[in-house]
Amino acid sequence: MKETEQERKRSFFEEATAFMKRYLPVDKSFDVIERVVEVGGRATHLYFIDGFIKDELMQRILTDFFKTAPADMDNMPAAGDFSRLKIPYVEVALEPEPKKAADAVLSGQTAMLIQGYEEVILMDLRTYPTRGVEEPEKEKTLRGSRDGLVETIVFNTALIRRRVRDSALIFDMHSVGKVSRTDVCIGYMEGLVDEKLVKQLKEQLSKLDMKSLTVGDQSLVEALGSLQQGRKRNRSAGSFWNPFPKVRYTERPDVVAAHLTEGKFVILVDNSPTAMILPTGLFDFLQDVDDYYFPIVTGNYFRFIRNITMLVTAFITPVYLMIAMGDIPLPDGLLFILPQEAYNIPLFWQFLLLELAVDGLKLASLNTPSALGMSLSVIGALILGDFSVTAGWFIPQSILLMATVALAGFSQPSIELNYAIKFMRMGMLVGVAAGGSLGFAAAVLLELVMLCTTKTITGTSYLYPLIPWNWTKLKGLIFRTR
Fold first, then answer.
1. Strand order in the sheet with 32-39
2. Alpha-carbon gap, residue 384 to 98, rounded angstroms
3. For 392-417, b where at least 16 C-beta lie within 10 A, e where not — what string?
4. Do the Cβ atoms of 316 and 351 come closer than 8 Å?
5. Which of 110, 163, 245, 421 could join 48 in a cystine, given CB atoms 3.0 to 4.6 angstroms apart?
6. What is the Cα–Cα distance from 237 to 378, expressed in whole angstroms?
7. Residue scoring higher pLDDT (344 or 101)
8. Can you tell me whether residue 265 is helix, strand or coil?
């Protein structure tokens, strides 16, 4: 019986080491390391990724292991005994399947195979290169914390738990992507979140058929678009033509903590500094962190200005086009806003070209080195603007209105909502150009129908708490009440 057990252990060790060498590119990739040593007189193989572990840390581990005598190994018949008595590190696990152990090595853990044991010992000794937790560039606040999420998922969970010190806060980890095997974490508060939605989300993540999740979180959001009523496809939320965002993105841990305590759940993706908050409706995008770092009156004033600005940017150019076409009469005191000079390009095409030009300048600014940023501003704002008017391409009114729209768009904390408003505005421009005031009404009606039929990624109403009506929650989203 003893010989059979020894043979079984020897067979596991030989098969596991052979699988590791076959599965991991030890001889092909310089950063995949296999270290063969003896611990207590037994052959031991260590597998790890160079760059995820520091050399001095590995040296200290091996120094401790080399002090183990063969007699000590006899007193530790199982891998669990060895990990309990000889490994002084916090995160240690036992894995009986070599395939899972190899995947853990590719994720940055260290695998140790010791002859005579039927389990692989996994040590989490990872050290990630990371940047500081600076305030997010897009979500700066006048008052409040100055830290932000980073690309390392464990740092992000620590930043959130620092603000929510409650045992009900749960972080559930999953692996997504056949190739990337990216860590995806679901965070929620037990007792506050809809447990049914969390269960559905976990099932959906476990069944996602994705090759990779290395670039962007949007691919994960689109893959989760089928999460509605169990496994039915959410056609509205996944519609190609629907511009309204279904997820709120943030890089601020205080915003994540606030939404968690409101009963929402958050998705964190490793290698991304952005948290995804679900479920999210239209009114959730109307809030900003500065609303809560100032007194109630000031916070409501900020929110009022931001919401009015959003409405103005959505309707200002289509309404002006109707005024210029004569569909909306003006009193004599306001006739000065009408074009006073002839123009070569129709006003509709001026607005449409300027919509595209503004985004082109944004992309150019994004890819311009900081040292040349001022030059781009001078060229874009002064030279192009002045000469386009002089050449007769545009009139001053169209440039003024589009400049106002471009600047006012930055008042919205959500880039995705800002672009949804932009597409709505362009749709109304097309409606006005095609049918005047009737075309405008048709475009507005179509966009309202789209809003009313849109569902969140979890299948709830996008306009909740307006539809269905819940004044208590709606009041808290429109106004700051506490």
1. 32-39, 42-49, 110-114, 120-123, 92-95
2. 63
3. ebbbebbbebbeebbebbebbbbebb
4. no
5. 110
6. 41
7. 101
8. strand
